Input
Amino acid sequence: DQFCNTGKIINKKLGELGGKCAKEIAMADEATGLEETVEPWIDSILDDMTITCSGRSIVEEKSADRDESEPVTQVKVTQETVATNGSISRVKEDEKKMDVEDTSELLVENSTLNASLEGVALLRKLLSLPRSAPFPSVPLNCLPALGPSLSSCALIDQAYDDEYRSRGMSLSEMDNVTITTSSTTAVHYTLNDPFESDILDAKYLTNTNVAGAKDASEVLSEGDYDNNEKIIQAMERYEEHFPLCPPNEEEISDSDSKCFERNGKRVIELRLSLPDDYTLEYQPGDSIGLIVPNSPHATEFVLGILYEKHGIDRTQKILCDEKHAITVTDAIKHRIDLCSPIKNKRILLSLSQFASDPEEKDALSLLSSKTPQGEELYNKFIDEQRRTVVDILREFPSCQNVTLEALVGTMPSITPRYYSVTSSPLSSGDHAPSLTVAFSVVDYLTPSLLPNTARSQRRIGGLATRYLETICSHFLSNSTLSVAPPTVKIFPKPTSEFLMPSDLSTPLVLIGPGTGIAPFMGFVSHRGALIKGTDTTKAASVACEGTWRGGYELEEDEIPTNEHDAKGLKLGADYRNRQNIGSVDVFFGCRYSDHDWLYREEMTRSKSTGLITNLYTAFSREGNKSQKYVQDIMKNNTDCTDRLVRLITDEGAVVYVCGDGNEMGRDVQDTIVELIAAKKYSATEEGKNRARSYLEQMKKTKKFLMDIWS
Output
């Protein structure tokens, strides 16, 4: 019988290769069977596949050579079945009638053991659910679609790896190679091709005790930056020296509370090397992307379960997305994001498919659902507690059967961390090229998960910032570094918006609370270098005019300036000689003037030399309610108010706002609108509307620029 034979052959072959039939084959041709067979099959395929991919249906095993005329026995689970049977777990028990006689006893035993497990126990407490009661049922239409895999991988043997290496570079790979020299001006380093930068120095910008860094540096005295065990030990030293709460549940004094608060507020400046050939250029306002690995805790845990559950050794090679072979360690450490809080419920549902314990399966299905109970539980247990995929694997251990393929296919890639540059490319002088960035070390406690139980808080550390703090321990503690410095992978992230005006006479208003001040320190440093350069350029322009300019008339935009120009004649600066120098007004805010006033010495020095015309500071924890935040200074300091409005409306100042938190950005904008309305128009609603239009026009003309993150 050759009727639909191609389909039969494919169906049979897929079965021989280990595939399981999700929906029975339907056969028809143009003459017969379209309405009776094909159309009903098409109408039901999406629903049936959704049910099957969610693990809600099975097709009875059939032999590959069964006669096509035999009736097909199919067990299908529908939403009506779920509603009738109550919970997903009972549906699954009805579905999976195994041939093993002691299956039911095994499930009961696992459920009994599971009652004491942390994840299920916590969820029961949050739901006020008795131990004997099942988790609430979840309709199938409330579960997320699993969707396609984000990536693919396959274990390869040594023979394949040897053959792959012997082939050399393929033509398609050669097409992607870009040959560059120091004279080109393109972006040379990217996320996929970063620069391996040496960490040249690091220091706390906050008034932070360096005893923790000293202890950590002793752990890393041999430069064991790739030794997960050593990194873990060094991180533990920081936690010991910077407690965020008392060891026992007890009331704490105001001074202790302030100490814990300061322990969690640590800001570091990092100096990074750049290529000697100047192929990584930047300008003030740009950011630098840092590529960091998963934490050693997470990496070791996942490598451990892959070996224990599947016998996969960390040194085995895998092929990811058919690109190149890497070790399992590289894939787990660098390729997939194990440490970011779970944002996609699809991850929870995917893990539930590997849970061998029915209670854990039902609990994870509920967490992944969009039912009211599921949403509330997700917010409390996952989102507020910042749980990661590793947390779920620890707290729901039957999910540890998850495969390497599932992890690579489900988890997103590690997102690079971006930090504003705090230096000027003109400030390196005769030293090797470098730049500086500043960042807050993320280290905080989540809200209590259970009422009146402080111990249900979780301590959360930033993946990148805590790692950087740890490997910089020698620099932070001023200890001698007798080994090669640690390295990080970086690439530039140029900005097309948050740039300084080319005209030195333009006044600047820089508003940067907290680490928002970071790029503005680069602005101030750069303007200082430009001002200093204008004097030397007068002599340089005379020399170069008779040397190579050759009498040609050049327009300003015809003279490119880069790092070489800055270190040499600075040709572009001869257009600045005729310019007046605009004022620079800086607004900075933090909690305590004696702890987190970042760049205090640099600001004070720049104020005394005239680089900063006016410096306004606000300290939110020091009791001055009239000047708690930077916007309070704008409103309550009369001299500041008049000057700010004059700079914006009469002198063409460019206003920059940078910092952490959308509320700060909105408050600053509302304050400026209020001030412009009162001084330029009127305090009425009509006046405020005109002021808002004025501010919107400033944004369009790039006179009001913001860089806000959350």
Observations:
- Residues 348 and 368 are 6 Å apart (CA to CA).
